[in-house]
Structures are given as structure tokens and as C-alpha cells.
Design goal:
single chain; 223 residues; alpha/beta; Rossmann fold; 7 helices; 9 strands; disordered C terminus
């Protein structure tokens, strides 16, 4: 199989690429990035692209499954409009091009609480992306909605660290343990698990509790 990845340099994306390259079921991993990952692994193809000019690289978006896990923060992007461009526009354009090129599957990393009707900007943005990609002609798509993501980041996000610490306590609260933080490596594993599941439904949305289960060691899963 050939995997296509956008968001390969992010928290989950790095783990995803590493796991894909170790997975013998994938013969090639094609990544689309803004800056080189500086990796030379066998089976890895890297395209450094301008996401604002998709016509220049659309012909390379061909494979079996598109893994989409691109994202940023308002602080890093500089404004809501800039974050929308990265989290919504770039991902929707890539998905549209991939579907047009005959890619059969989409695995999209979203977020818990995503909804087009949300009053929270971030949740509304994620929800609108989920809604719109469902109109694209993929044979199957899996949308993962993990809770807080934990892992080693380049930048320190004080607010997020506090949130993760507080949310970690939810594992002791009956009915709320599903919202406990989840490590980046487990989300990456869950995304790969979804890419091999039989297409019982065309659109499959996985809430936080299910993402935890999908991210469990593959030896403990029934795929």
C-alpha cells in the first residue's frame, strides 16, 4: 500500500510517519511538507510544497490512503484566519485533490467536541472540516476525535500542559475517563488501524473512548 501524509512534521504526524515506515503493509510513504523532515528512510518520499499552490503538486497525491493530521494554534499562526488556512483550507484542498485522483480512503485527525454549530472557534473549525470532507467521493473515511494530545512538542504550551495535568485526573472520574489525555503514539497507531478496517460504513467517526481502544497494541485488537 501507498500512504499519503499531510501534517507529517506535527506531534502526531511524526509518530505516524515513523510507524508507517516500520509497517511492512506499506511499501511507500509519501509526505507533503512545508519544510524538509531531513529523513532518508527506505520507502519515504518527501515533497516540499507550497500548500497555497496545490496545482503545482496535485499530481503527486496518488496512493491508497490519505492521512491528514495537519494543525496549528492561533498563537503559532498569528490569527484565526491563518489558523483556519492551515487547519481547514490546506487539509480540505489536499483531501479534494486526493479524492479526485482516485485515492480510496481518508483518515482525518480531528478533535473531541468538533461541531459546525459550536460557539468555540476551534471546535467549529474542526466540525466544518469534518462536514465538508464527507461530501468528497472517498470509499471510506475515518475521522478521529481524540481528547487532549500529549507528547514531546518543540514549543512549550503552558496552558496546554496545565490542561493535560487537569484532564489526566478524569481517569478517576466515572463516565469521564474517555476524556483523559492520549499520547501521540497511540493516536498514530489508531489512525493506521483505521486504514485497514473493512468499509462497513462510508463515514466512521471515532470519539475519544474509541480512539483509546484503536490505539491499543495491535496484538490486543480485532481489526
Amino acid at each position: 500500500m501507498t500512504a499519503l501524509v499531510i501534517g507529517a512534521t506535527g506531534l502526531v504526524g511524526k509518530q505516524l510517519v515513523s510507524q508507517l515506515l516500520k509497517d511492512r503493509r506499506f511499501s511507500q510513504v509519501i509526505c507533503f511538507v512545508r519544510k524538509s523532515m531531513r529523513r532518508s528512510d527506505p520507502g519515504l518520499v518527501e515533497h516540499v510544497v507550497d500548500f497555497r499552490n496545490p496545482a503545482a503538486w496535485s499530481e503527486w497525491l496518488k496512493g491508497d490512503v490519505l492521512f491528514s493530521c495537519m494543525g496549528t494554534t492561533i498563537r503559532a499562526a498569528g490569527s484565526r484566519d491563518a489558523q483556519w488556512e492551515v487547519d481547514y483550507t490546506f487539509q480540505f484542498q489536499a483531501a479534494s485533490l486526493a479524492a479526485g485522483n482516485g485515492v480510496k480512503r481518508l483518515v482525518l485527525l480531528s478533535a473531541a467536541g468538533a461541531s459546525p454549530q459550536s460557539r468555540v472557534f476551534y471546535s467549529r473549525m474542526k466540525g466544518e472540516l469534518e462536514r465538508d470532507v464527507q461530501e468528497l467521493p472517498f470509499e471510506r473515511m475515518d475521522i478521529l476525535r481524540p481528547s487532549f494530545l500529549s507528547g514531546k512538542r518543540k514549543e512549550i504550551r503552558i496552558g496546554e500542559l496545565i490542561g493535560i495535568a487537569l484532564m489526566s485526573l478524569l481517569r478517576f472520574v466515572p463516565g469521564l475517563s474517555m476524556y483523559r489525555p492520549i499520547r501521540d503514539v497511540l493516536v498514530a497507531r489508531a489512525m493506521i488501524t483505521c486504514s485497514f478496517r473493512l468499509p462497513e460504513h462510508r463515514v466512521n467517526i471515532h470519539e475519544p473512548a474509541e480512539v483509546h481502544k484503536l490505539g491499543a497494541p495491535w496484538t490486543k485488537q480485532r481489526v
